[in-house]
Amino acid sequence: MTDTTSRAPVVGRLGRKEFIVLVAGLVAINAFAIDIMLPGLQQIGASLGEADPNKRQLVIPAYLLGFGLLQLVFGPLSDRFGRRGPLLVGLAVYCLAALCAFFTTNFSALIALRLVQGGGAAASAVIATALVRDVFAGNEMAKIMSLVFTVLMLSPILAPSLGQGLMTVMDWRGLFGFMAALGLIIIAWVWWRLPETLQPEHRRPLSLRAVLEGFGIVFANRVSLAYIIGMAALFGALMGFLNSSQQIYRDVFGVTTLFPVFFAGGAICSALGGVVNAQLVNRFGMRKLSWVALAVFSAAALVMLAAGLLQALPLALFFALSAAQFLVFSMILSNFGALAMEPLGEVAGTAASTQGFLQMVPGAAIGILIGQMFNGTVVPMALGHVAMAGLTAVCLVTMAAEGRRGVGAT
User: Fold this and answer.
1) Per-residue pLDDT band at 11 (split at 50, 70, 90)
2) How far is 175 from 186, CA to CA, in rounded Å?
3) Number of structural domains found in the chain
4) Is 11 helix (H, G, I), strand (E, B) or coil?
5) Which CATH number is 332's domain given?
6) What are phi and psi of 313, to 5 degrees?
7) H or E stretch at 267
8) For 409, which DSSP code?
9) Which of 45, 278, 285, 391 could bond to 50 as cystine, CB 3.0-4.6 Å?
10) Mean pLDDT score of the chain
11) pLDDT tens, 194-224?
């Protein structure tokens, strides 16, 4: 592990800034694969013969389901064979699935290809987290993850507008062409610039016993598991917003062409949250910042729910509350992710894959449930946010506190 206070090159030829941007790029291709689709959901459904607007949402959670499931595979592979090889394979699958989706003429086939595309992208998310854990630890790791999230949050700012722009010159297929091209750029960058970060002495054998042992280490650590469950719950709340955001802005508030602008505004707040967290984490610590951020998220959800039930939720208030949630969401995820990974350096790849699986698969399921409950109001989404924030608080109070007393902690 490198000296975390050094500003010297971090890995091989990669300087600190390039390392952060590359890791953010590995994560950002997933954000682009999700957010760039939002303006095209209705056109995709109409083009491929899917009339139900709620079912058109499945283009997003199908990707997330594959993304979550295959993390369980790429984590142990990266602990056995290193980071580079599995990462390049996963990125190649991502690109090929996007190219096949470009040519598909069937909605069900598109959903299947999105599942495969998400599966390939799982490598980038797992290995991005493992790369950071290979190089940094503690509050410095949280700081780097915050900076990664800051760069990452630029993609939701750009993606919906980019998607809408692409659809002015060609149909929805251009979205998949863009994703394939972006994936190829990341492949070239990894191939030429990223060396192997997993030291030979830290590689784990790829056997069923070793894999189960690695997962056992993760699940036995109550502190890590509490933060992972919290991430899953809050990610599910975010997915509920993403799945129904276009319908909410269009059907509830009458926003159509300006939808990408409102969406970008929330993403800017999320990027700002990453910057704020990076500046404050060394001063106040990850746990304190996490609790403050969770309190803000919960308060905004409660106000949104109450105003929705009273039918007193104007567009300005809805946007302000959503912006507050986006602001603290990036703080929560970056800190929770670092807190979950901190005691698991010996199985960083497996830990990252378990974290990703438990975040994405239940999160996608929660997001589908919230999205499919859309009834022309913001109430189902706000209720889901309140419930998920409450679940997170319960997990942290019980499991994390118990783990810090030494019960189940490794």
Assistant:
1) low
2) 17
3) 1
4) strand
5) 1.20.1250.20
6) -120, 90
7) helix 259-284
8) -
9) 45
10) 83
11) 888 888 877 877 777 766 776 787 788 888 8
Question: Could you give the CA distance from residue 148 to residue 256 in angstroms, rounded to a whole number?
Answer: 31
pLDDT band at 337; cut points 50, 70, 90: confident
Query: Has residue 9 been placed in a domain?
Result: no
Helix ranges (H only) for 36-172 are 41-48, 53-56, 59-69, 71-81, 84-103, 107-135, 138-152, 154-169
CA distances from 400 to 112, 296, 334, 368 (A): 38, 20, 17, 28
Residue 409 lies in a domain: no
The two most distant CA atoms of the chain are separated, in Å, by 61
Please give the distance of CA 393 from its chain centroid, rounded to a whole number.
20
- DSSP secondary structure letter of residue 30: H
The fraction of the chain above a pLDDT of 90, given in percent, is 31
CA distance 226 to 46: 42
Instruction: Look up the domain containing 154 and give its range.
Output: 16-404
Amino acid at 181: A
Q: Which residue has the tokens 């058109």?
A: 56
* Dist. CA 145–CA 136, nearest whole Å: 10
Give 11's strand partners: 14
Residue 7 lies in a domain: no
State the DSSP code for 410: -
Structure tokens belonging to residue 333: 């995820």
Least confident range from 202-211, 249-258, 296-305: namely 202-211
In angstroms, the CA 312 to CA 216 distance is: 49
What is the rounded end-to-end Cα distance, in angstroms, of the chain? 21
Find out whether 337 and 228 touch, Cβ atoms under 8 Å.
Answer: no
Rounded CA-CA distance 148/131 in Å is 12
pLDDT in tens, 26-75: 988 887 898 888 788 888 988 998 888 778 878 988 998 898 888 888 88
Q: Is the dihedral of CA 182, 185, 191, 195 positive or negative?
A: negative
Helix, strand, or coil (residue 322)? helix
